[in-house]
Amino acid sequence: MTNQDLLKIAEKFGSPVYVYDSEKIISQYNRLTNAFSKVKNLRIHYAVKALSNISILSLFQNLGAGLDTVSVQEVKLGLQAGVDPSKIIYTPNGVSLEEIEMVAKMGVQINIDNLSILEQFGTKHPEVPVCIRINPHVMAGGNTNISVGHIDSKFGISIHQIPHVLRIVENTGMNINGIHMHTGSDILDIEVFLYASEILFSTALQFKDLEFLDFGSGFKVPYKEDDIETNIEELGEKLTAKFQSFCKQYGKELTLAFEPGKFLVSEAGKFLVKVNVIKQTTSTVFAQVDSGFNHLIRPMLYGSRHEIYNISNPEGKERFYSVVGYICETDTFASNRRISEIKEGDILAFKNAGAYCFSMASNYNSRFRPPEVLWHEGKAHLIRKRETFEDLIRGQVKMEFTPEKAEK
């Protein structure tokens, strides 16, 4: 996908607009499966929350992937996209027993992460296979908001509570068919991941009828040139050896599962915006664009970095700009960033816009959410229309008020 392709997309579909490159998604999927090619039974569950458009889910279904879901709505999206329910795992946090029961009836794999729901569900539905999400108490991840395996995390059942789990399983007669963990996102040190895997293996030995082990994800992708990333190939080699050794010890060939989201779609995405105003103050030159944190909140929420380049003038002389949005709050995408000279009307492209961009977008300031376009086999395909005013007021109910009479 060239700059000219992107400019044509912006011209055809308007700005702002999200663009995803299917070729990059496919290459990332193949890279991950190749890294673990020596594992006999490998299952990749794409994390729907990263990018939930049903055309993207359908693409993963076509590649042979399953889905990792966290809500009944994501499960329904997966089914709508044509994914077999047996390839969907449902890992909620803090939801009601009623929602879990609703999902169980759809035939997907249930994953439970707290003792209360485990006991309630096991008592009522001992025949339904259940996976257990453990908390290994390992701090990992690029930001405290995305580190979920540490001791203070709300996620998972503490490894110190495994005796309680075993007692519930014995009392209810329920079937535990999988053990799951997820330590966090943007993990660089694979030794931390391998250390956590030993905890998972040790826990798994206490359950006799397992079918799979789920290692979550958290693989870091590069956000800028020469940026460091998770060495998937090295992790694949080392974790495969550990997993094969465990299977021999367990006496059974289990399935090894992962739940990547960002790793598969982040680099495939570009977010295109138009520069409305160049505003120079005494100390800063602002490039004010036709978007804001209502469309791309990650820099403001996580402090994440998105490379920004001027596709209207890619070879221009570089100058320093602060790229900001049109929301009536501080929504700075980049401060004093070197970008090819920008003029009003130019189109800027944000890299790494495939994960947690549209899926976290909102209608703040009553702005419309942008369209989504999939670049597939050399053509641009609209996979979500731009919202309209009718979309904005859909579901709202206008009350009629009796005019207030002024007091005499």
Quick summary:
GO terms for molecular function: diaminopimelate decarboxylase activity; pyridoxal phosphate binding. The chain has twelve helices and 18 strands.
Describe this protein with a few key phrases.
408 residues, alpha/beta, Lyase, Ornithine Decarboxylase, Chain A, domain 1, 2 domains, nine-stranded mixed beta sheet, eight-stranded parallel β-barrel
Topology:
Elements: H1 3-13, E1 17-21, H2 22-35, E2 42-47, H3 54-63, E3 66-69, H4 72-80, E4 88-90, H5 97-104, E5 109-112, H6 115-124, E6 130-135, E7 157-158, H7 162-172, E8 176-180, H8 190-204, E9 212-214, H9 232-250, E10 255-258, H10 262-265, E11 269-280, E12 285-289, H11 298-301, E13 308-310, E14 318-324, E15 332-340, E16 347-350, E17 372-376, E18 379-384, H12 389-393
Parallel strand pairs: 1-17, 2-3, 2-10, 3-4, 4-5, 5-6, 6-7, 6-8, 8-9, 9-10, 12-14
Antiparallel strand pairs: 1-11, 11-12, 11-16, 13-16, 14-15, 17-18
Helix pairs in contact: 2-9, 6-7, 8-9
Q: CATH topology of the largest domain, anyone?
A: TIM Barrel
Task: Give the overall form.
Answer: globular
Structural class: alpha/beta
Q: Biggest β-sheet: count, sense, barrel?
A: 9 strands, mixed
Counting DSSP E segments of at least 2 residues, the number of strands comes to: 18
What's the end-to-end separation, in Å? Answer: 71 Å
Oligomer: single chain
Keywords: Amino-acid biosynthesis, Decarboxylase, Lyase, Lysine biosynthesis, Pyridoxal phosphate
Binding site for substrate: 298, 302, 329, 356
GO biological process, one term: lysine biosynthetic process via diaminopimelate
Domain Orn/DAP/Arg decarboxylase 2 C-terminal: 18-354
